[in-house]
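Quality-control log, excerpt.
Job 1 of 2 completed; input and output follow.
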Amino acid sequence: MLRTDGLPGADAGAFDLDHADSIELLRRQTGVLELIAAGAPLREVLTRVAVSLEELIEDSSCSILLLDPTGAALHHGAAPSLPATYSADIDGIVIGPDSGSCGAAAYLGMPVVAEDIASDPRWVGFREIARPHGLRSCWSSPIRGCNGTVGTFAVYHHHPHRPPLREQRLVERFTHLSGVAIDHAGLFGALAESEERFRRAFEDNAVGMVLTDAAGRTVRVNRAMREMVGRSEVELLGTALGELVTPTPASAARAAEAMELTRPGGGTRGSIHYEGTARHTDGRAVQLAVAVSAVRGANGTPVHLSANLLDITQRRAAERDRRARREAEVARAAAEAASRAKSEFVSALNHELRTPLQAITGFTELLRTLDLPADRRRAALGHIEAPPRTSWRWSTISSTSRRSRPMRCRSTSRRSTSAC
């Protein structure tokens, strides 16, 4: 069976590597896998792959190109035996049916052999790049990963060359190994990127954040929390959340419930909210709104507590100021109402007292003009001259009332610095 590129199919002649090649292949594959397991950089792993194949194929130079995220261009991955200037010249090559062996292999999704670069039509646009370096043949295979083509694996020679079945089998093995390395790097790269995003989100969050172990002991503290209490992370590590934040009396039960979230079955209760106070190293009390939730491990068991702590000191101070202003307004209104009631009472009393006093005074003056015996006039006047003392008392009250003006109240806000 032949493929469209003229290379035999995978089952042609049931060909397989001999024992010696298999041993060498196994040894080199093991070395590459050990690098992958050790977390070596992708370029180092791919260089080891290329060198391993070059040692098994005489007079060969290998190149591994990586397909960019857009799937449109290939970029340098590893080429230990090729001139650096050549690798730089083909870096960023756009894939297509006439983009040399590598660009065509990535585009078509199958191996592409150029037995003689000087005459291969797919190399028209790249022939002058290869010629100064003495490159005469190139065959390239697509590298497949878990999500499709991820790159190409090319073998160059300095003379026209067509790969025999042995070389094809070796390239198949190392192409597959390259795909494993690239997938592994992609997965770990994504994991590292995710961890970095979490680290930045944790560390740079404006809200204080604390991560504890299952026992409630601090294992990580972000910058906002460190600034709230004026202490370094080293000083805070190992501190119990309950020691770092003292719950208010009204929140004590909720805070105790939060510490149960890492117990069996406790993590199903979602987050728990309460209020508490932390103490800054300068003595200030910092009032906090606390939200605690469980962080589960791979098997779903709660293994950490995550606490978000929002500084509400200013909010609570503003609430106390608003309360004080409202109470002052109520007191002012009550005082003004009392002042108005007093004025109305004095006015009514003035009217009630002055009317009869004026009548008595008038009768007194009339009595003085009557022709009465002196003893009777004196007796009559003696009975009616007592009211002037009442009039004097009223005049005193009225004068005092006029001097005491209506009460004027004004509210004054008082800033409270102590925690309630």
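Job 2 of 2 completed; input and output follow.
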Amino acid sequence: MWNCDLEGAAFAGQSRLIGVAGWYENSNYANLVWDKSWKVVRHAGNRVAMGNLNQTNFSDLVPKHAVQIRPGVFSVEIASRQESLAANMPAFRVQDRHDRTLAIIYTWQDRRDLVGIEQSDQDGSRQNFGKTQHWIGNLAPIGPWFGMKLIIDTTDKRVNGYVRRAEGDSVMLNASPLPYYDHNAQGNHIFLGLASRKLKDATGNTLAMDNIRMTQLSC
């Protein structure tokens, strides 16, 4: 349905990520020059989105990208690579056009195995999944790539989370589907908020992203 082709002509040379090829630019973010922290660069033979998280804010997940889906089941996935465990939490958020959140998934700082899926207080709050659930003890260390994925059912308003290490197979986190974070979220216009929650400035506080895609699984 949508694949961010960082090898495409839109990202030739060293180019900005935000404001190019459909990426949504938050003007408040850009006015504080946080958008300039994200570039598309060649790294280890591949073109990837690279961000210096010391130059971003603490709360927003940007850049964002808007995608129109069909009612049914779709997946969102991203591969990430980090250079600091203590200073940031790689994550992505799926929202509707009114900023209501369907789901948020992220890895925890200082933990190479722990993954969280946010839930509202009425649904029992955050759900955490460690190596005893997914059996990947070294999921997100410094250096190697790892992947996170959400499969979202817009009819039943349910979510399943998955993770993988490097090029390994995806492993499901939750034994049964979780409800939308915001029960009022709806519609077929989806905004993806990608990157990381910055916790503090740190040496080597960078994040690389690649293989960003959405797939319509059923409709």
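Post-run check on job 2. Residues 2-218 form a domain with the Jelly Rolls fold (CATH 2.60.120.200).
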